[in-house]
Amino acid sequence: MYAKLPLSLAAAGAVLLLATGASATGVSPAASQEIATAAAHAGMAASAADATMVHAHLHHTINCLVGPKGAGYDTSQDDPCKGQGKGAIPDSPPAMQKKLEAALATAKIGAAEPDMTSAKDKARQVQSALTSALGE
Length: 136
Known about the structure:
Elements: H1 9-20, H2 29-46, H3 51-66, H4 94-112, H5 116-135
């Protein structure tokens, strides 16, 4: 369903952490997986060729962050984190939740941004924030 895209070095590092079961942040494996998936979709949004896909991947990012019972979850959009946990924010400790909520706010702005260049910039900011959160 999704085009295969090359992973950024940061995303590859997040995948490596998941593959080894390690977590540099002390968050649960479920939260780490959800954060990595959200970061990957933010990256897909940042490199998407059209506005529809930029917005779709940002919605996927939002769904991963909030989880199916979270505010802002959009049932009309895919949830690439389905089955991974309750959502990255609810599955994370309070200190991590604050970082994820900041990324969520940026993702929501990008998802609502009509200008593709601005939306892609927000997506890059979200991807950076999420990969940084995973590495802390």
